[in-house]
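wait is this the right file?? whatever heres the structure
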Protein backbone atom coordinates (compact mmCIF):
# COMPACT_ATOMS: atom_id res chain seq x y z
CA UNK A 1 0.00 0.00 0.00
CA UNK A 2 1.21 3.45 -0.89
CA UNK A 3 0.60 6.35 1.46
CA UNK A 4 -1.47 9.27 0.11
CA UNK A 5 1.79 11.24 -0.07
CA UNK A 6 3.45 8.52 -2.19
CA UNK A 7 0.43 8.53 -4.54
CA UNK A 8 0.76 12.32 -4.90
CA UNK A 9 4.52 12.08 -5.43
CA UNK A 10 4.14 9.46 -8.18
CA UNK A 11 1.34 11.51 -9.81
CA UNK A 12 3.71 14.48 -9.79
CA UNK A 13 6.53 12.39 -11.33
CA UNK A 14 4.40 11.05 -14.19
CA UNK A 15 2.87 14.49 -14.81
CA UNK A 16 6.30 16.14 -14.91
CA UNK A 17 7.53 13.52 -17.41
CA UNK A 18 4.46 14.37 -19.53
CA UNK A 19 5.03 18.15 -19.29
CA UNK A 20 8.77 17.98 -19.88
CA UNK A 21 8.51 15.32 -22.61
CA UNK A 22 11.21 13.48 -20.69
CA UNK A 23 10.68 9.75 -20.08
CA UNK A 24 11.35 8.38 -16.60
CA UNK A 25 11.99 4.90 -15.19
CA UNK A 26 8.85 2.94 -14.43
CA UNK A 27 7.49 3.91 -11.00
CA UNK A 28 7.43 0.38 -9.58
CA UNK A 29 11.23 0.29 -9.82
CA UNK A 30 11.28 2.72 -6.88
CA UNK A 31 8.40 1.28 -4.83
CA UNK A 32 6.33 -1.71 -5.95
CA UNK A 33 2.55 -1.17 -5.88
CA UNK A 34 -0.59 -2.84 -7.21
CA UNK A 35 -3.14 -2.03 -9.92
CA UNK A 36 -5.60 -0.34 -7.53
CA UNK A 37 -2.83 2.01 -6.41
CA UNK A 38 -1.99 2.59 -10.07
CA UNK A 39 -5.53 3.88 -10.60
CA UNK A 40 -5.16 6.20 -7.59
CA UNK A 41 -2.01 7.65 -9.17
CA UNK A 42 -3.83 7.95 -12.52
CA UNK A 43 -6.65 9.86 -10.84
CA UNK A 44 -4.23 12.19 -9.08
CA UNK A 45 -2.17 12.88 -12.21
CA UNK A 46 -5.30 13.50 -14.33
CA UNK A 47 -6.57 15.87 -11.61
CA UNK A 48 -3.41 17.90 -12.23
CA UNK A 49 -4.27 18.19 -15.91
CA UNK A 50 -7.88 19.09 -15.05
CA UNK A 51 -6.57 21.85 -12.77
CA UNK A 52 -4.74 23.25 -15.83
CA UNK A 53 -8.03 23.38 -17.75
CA UNK A 54 -7.89 20.08 -19.65
CA UNK A 55 -11.43 18.65 -19.75
CA UNK A 56 -12.53 14.98 -19.62
CA UNK A 57 -14.26 14.01 -22.91
CA UNK A 58 -14.36 10.22 -22.61
CA UNK A 59 -12.47 7.09 -21.68
CA UNK A 60 -10.08 4.67 -23.36
CA UNK A 61 -9.57 0.99 -22.96
CA UNK A 62 -6.12 -0.47 -23.61
CA UNK A 63 -4.48 -3.86 -23.95
CA UNK A 64 -7.75 -5.39 -25.17
CA UNK A 65 -6.21 -7.35 -28.06
CA UNK A 66 -3.68 -10.18 -28.05
CA UNK A 67 -1.48 -8.20 -30.47
CA UNK A 68 -1.23 -5.33 -27.99
CA UNK A 69 -0.79 -7.58 -24.96
CA UNK A 70 2.06 -9.39 -26.69
CA UNK A 71 3.70 -6.20 -27.92
CA UNK A 72 3.71 -4.66 -24.43
CA UNK A 73 4.13 -7.82 -22.32
CA UNK A 74 1.13 -6.83 -20.18
CA UNK A 75 -1.83 -9.18 -20.18
CA UNK A 76 -4.81 -7.35 -18.67
CA UNK A 77 -7.11 -4.68 -20.13
CA UNK A 78 -6.80 -1.25 -18.53
CA UNK A 79 -8.64 2.04 -18.78
CA UNK A 80 -7.70 5.71 -18.84
CA UNK A 81 -9.25 9.14 -19.34
CA UNK A 82 -9.48 11.01 -22.66
CA UNK A 83 -9.24 14.80 -22.45
CA UNK A 84 -9.95 17.68 -24.82
CA UNK A 85 -6.22 18.31 -25.36
CA UNK A 86 -5.82 14.77 -26.76
CA UNK A 87 -8.37 15.13 -29.56
CA UNK A 88 -6.91 15.91 -33.01
CA UNK A 89 -8.97 16.80 -36.06
CA UNK A 90 -9.08 14.23 -38.84
CA UNK A 91 -6.12 14.93 -41.12
CA UNK A 92 -4.47 16.94 -38.35
CA UNK A 93 -0.76 17.19 -37.64
CA UNK A 94 1.05 15.59 -34.74
CA UNK A 95 4.17 17.41 -33.57
CA UNK A 96 6.82 14.72 -33.10
CA UNK A 97 8.78 17.06 -30.81
CA UNK A 98 5.82 17.31 -28.41
CA UNK A 99 6.12 13.60 -27.61
CA UNK A 100 8.69 11.21 -26.16
CA UNK A 101 8.39 8.26 -28.57
CA UNK A 102 4.96 8.26 -30.23
CA UNK A 103 3.37 5.13 -31.67
CA UNK A 104 0.10 4.89 -33.57
CA UNK A 105 -2.53 2.13 -33.43
CA UNK A 106 -5.88 1.50 -35.16
CA UNK A 107 -9.04 1.39 -33.06
CA UNK A 108 -12.83 1.41 -33.11
CA UNK A 109 -14.38 4.30 -31.17
CA UNK A 110 -17.94 4.70 -29.89
CA UNK A 111 -19.85 7.88 -29.11
CA UNK A 112 -22.30 7.48 -26.27
CA UNK A 113 -25.76 9.02 -26.55
CA UNK A 114 -26.79 7.89 -23.09
CA UNK A 115 -24.99 7.35 -19.78
CA UNK A 116 -23.90 3.80 -18.89
CA UNK A 117 -23.23 2.54 -15.38
CA UNK A 118 -22.46 -0.75 -13.69
CA UNK A 119 -22.92 -4.21 -15.12
CA UNK A 120 -24.56 -3.81 -18.54
CA UNK A 121 -25.45 -6.32 -21.25
CA UNK A 122 -24.10 -6.13 -24.80
CA UNK A 123 -27.64 -5.11 -25.86
CA UNK A 124 -27.77 -2.25 -23.35
CA UNK A 125 -24.28 -1.10 -24.32
CA UNK A 126 -25.21 -1.07 -28.03
CA UNK A 127 -28.43 0.84 -27.30
CA UNK A 128 -26.41 3.57 -25.58
CA UNK A 129 -24.18 4.10 -28.65
CA UNK A 130 -25.04 7.00 -30.94
CA UNK A 131 -22.14 6.68 -33.35
CA UNK A 132 -19.23 4.50 -34.42
CA UNK A 133 -15.91 5.80 -35.79
CA UNK A 134 -12.65 4.50 -37.16
CA UNK A 135 -9.88 5.90 -34.97
CA UNK A 136 -6.14 6.22 -34.60
CA UNK A 137 -4.68 6.49 -31.14
CA UNK A 138 -1.25 8.00 -30.57
CA UNK A 139 0.30 6.46 -27.48
CA UNK A 140 3.39 7.88 -25.82
CA UNK A 141 4.46 6.15 -22.63
CA UNK A 142 6.06 8.42 -20.08
CA UNK A 143 8.34 5.48 -19.22
CA UNK A 144 11.74 4.93 -20.80
CA UNK A 145 11.65 2.55 -23.79
CA UNK A 146 7.90 1.92 -23.28
CA UNK A 147 8.91 -0.44 -20.44
CA UNK A 148 6.36 -0.86 -17.68
CA UNK A 149 4.33 -3.28 -15.58
CA UNK A 150 0.52 -3.26 -15.43
CA UNK A 151 0.36 -0.92 -12.37
CA UNK A 152 2.83 1.50 -14.04
CA UNK A 153 0.90 1.84 -17.30
CA UNK A 154 -2.32 2.31 -15.33
CA UNK A 155 -0.64 5.12 -13.35
CA UNK A 156 0.42 6.66 -16.70
CA UNK A 157 -3.20 6.86 -17.95
CA UNK A 158 -2.64 3.97 -20.36
CA UNK A 159 0.15 5.78 -22.29
CA UNK A 160 -2.51 8.05 -23.81
CA UNK A 161 -1.33 10.99 -25.90
CA UNK A 162 -3.61 11.99 -28.81
CA UNK A 163 -6.36 10.48 -30.96
CA UNK A 164 -8.21 11.17 -34.19
CA UNK A 165 -11.70 10.01 -35.21
CA UNK A 166 -13.27 9.46 -38.63
CA UNK A 167 -16.65 10.99 -39.34
CA UNK A 168 -19.39 9.22 -37.42
CA UNK A 169 -21.90 6.75 -38.70
CA UNK A 170 -25.04 5.88 -36.76
CA UNK A 171 -25.62 2.36 -37.91
CA UNK A 172 -28.41 0.65 -36.00
CA UNK A 173 -27.96 -2.49 -38.10
CA UNK A 174 -24.18 -2.50 -38.44
CA UNK A 175 -22.47 -5.53 -36.95
CA UNK A 176 -19.17 -4.26 -35.50
CA UNK A 177 -17.98 -7.70 -34.36
CA UNK A 178 -15.67 -8.56 -37.26
CA UNK A 179 -14.79 -5.59 -39.47
CA UNK A 180 -11.57 -5.47 -41.46
CA UNK A 181 -9.10 -2.80 -40.31
CA UNK A 182 -6.09 -1.58 -42.30
CA UNK A 183 -3.49 0.86 -40.98
CA UNK A 184 -1.16 2.39 -43.57
CA UNK A 185 2.03 4.37 -43.08
CA UNK A 186 2.96 6.63 -45.98
CA UNK A 187 0.39 4.84 -48.14
CA UNK A 188 1.88 1.38 -47.51
CA UNK A 189 0.01 -1.22 -45.46
CA UNK A 190 1.63 -1.45 -42.02
CA UNK A 191 -0.87 -3.51 -40.00
CA UNK A 192 -3.99 -5.46 -40.95
CA UNK A 193 -6.55 -6.72 -38.46
CA UNK A 194 -10.15 -7.13 -37.50
CA UNK A 195 -12.33 -5.48 -34.89
CA UNK A 196 -12.78 -9.06 -33.59
CA UNK A 197 -9.23 -8.82 -32.21
CA UNK A 198 -10.60 -6.50 -29.52
CA UNK A 199 -11.94 -8.91 -26.87
CA UNK A 200 -13.70 -10.87 -29.69
CA UNK A 201 -16.06 -7.90 -30.18
CA UNK A 202 -15.26 -4.21 -29.50
CA UNK A 203 -18.58 -3.82 -27.69
CA UNK A 204 -17.16 -6.13 -25.02
CA UNK A 205 -14.50 -3.51 -24.39
CA UNK A 206 -17.24 -1.00 -23.53
CA UNK A 207 -19.01 -3.54 -21.29
CA UNK A 208 -15.70 -4.32 -19.53
CA UNK A 209 -15.02 -0.60 -19.07
CA UNK A 210 -18.41 -0.13 -17.35
CA UNK A 211 -17.67 -3.06 -15.07
CA UNK A 212 -14.23 -1.72 -14.13
CA UNK A 213 -15.62 1.78 -13.48
CA UNK A 214 -18.42 0.36 -11.31
CA UNK A 215 -15.76 -0.92 -8.91
CA UNK A 216 -14.83 2.68 -8.14
CA UNK A 217 -18.45 3.91 -8.28
CA UNK A 218 -17.85 5.70 -11.53
CA UNK A 219 -19.62 5.50 -14.90
CA UNK A 220 -19.85 6.87 -18.43
CA UNK A 221 -21.71 10.00 -19.54
CA UNK A 222 -23.83 10.87 -22.55
CA UNK A 223 -21.48 12.43 -25.10
CA UNK A 224 -18.45 10.40 -24.01
CA UNK A 225 -16.01 9.18 -26.64
CA UNK A 226 -14.91 5.60 -25.94
CA UNK A 227 -11.74 4.18 -27.50
CA UNK A 228 -11.97 0.39 -27.39
CA UNK A 229 -8.25 -0.44 -27.73
CA UNK A 230 -5.74 -1.16 -30.49
CA UNK A 231 -6.69 -4.05 -32.77
CA UNK A 232 -3.09 -4.53 -33.95
CA UNK A 233 0.39 -3.73 -32.67
CA UNK A 234 1.26 -0.02 -32.59
CA UNK A 235 3.79 1.45 -35.03
CA UNK A 236 6.43 4.13 -34.28
CA UNK A 237 6.25 7.35 -36.31
CA UNK A 238 8.77 10.01 -37.36
CA UNK A 239 8.46 13.50 -38.82
CA UNK A 240 7.22 13.33 -42.41
CA UNK A 241 5.09 10.22 -41.84
CA UNK A 242 1.39 10.09 -42.48
CA UNK A 243 -0.76 7.33 -41.02
CA UNK A 244 -4.28 6.30 -42.00
CA UNK A 245 -6.80 3.76 -40.78
CA UNK A 246 -9.63 2.30 -42.83
CA UNK A 247 -12.34 0.27 -41.14
CA UNK A 248 -14.71 -1.79 -43.25
CA UNK A 249 -18.24 -0.29 -43.40
CA UNK A 250 -17.25 2.57 -41.06
CA UNK A 251 -14.73 4.96 -42.51
CA UNK A 252 -11.27 6.38 -42.60
CA UNK A 253 -9.15 8.70 -40.46
CA UNK A 254 -5.61 9.99 -40.85
CA UNK A 255 -2.91 12.09 -39.27
CA UNK A 256 0.36 13.66 -40.33
CA UNK A 257 3.57 13.86 -38.34
CA UNK A 258 5.68 17.04 -38.44
C1 LIG B 1 -0.48 0.90 -23.37
C2 LIG B 1 -1.71 1.49 -24.00
C3 LIG B 1 -2.51 0.45 -24.69
C4 LIG B 1 -4.25 0.00 -26.42
O1 LIG B 1 -5.07 0.42 -27.25
O2 LIG B 1 -4.03 -1.20 -26.28
C5 LIG B 1 -3.55 0.99 -25.60
C6 LIG B 1 0.67 0.90 -24.32
O3 LIG B 1 0.65 0.16 -25.30
O4 LIG B 1 1.64 1.65 -24.07
O5 LIG B 1 -3.83 2.16 -25.73
MG1 LIG C 1 -4.99 2.43 -27.60
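ok assuming it is, sequence goes like this
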Amino acid sequence: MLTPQQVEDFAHDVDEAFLRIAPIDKLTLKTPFGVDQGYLIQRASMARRAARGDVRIGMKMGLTSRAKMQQMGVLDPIYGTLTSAMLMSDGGTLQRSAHCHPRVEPEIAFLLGKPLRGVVSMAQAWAAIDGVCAALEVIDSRFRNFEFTLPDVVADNGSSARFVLSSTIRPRDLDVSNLGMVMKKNGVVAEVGSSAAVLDHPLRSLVALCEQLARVEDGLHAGDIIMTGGATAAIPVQPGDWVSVEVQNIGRAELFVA
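The first helix runs from residue 4 to 20. so i think its the right one actually
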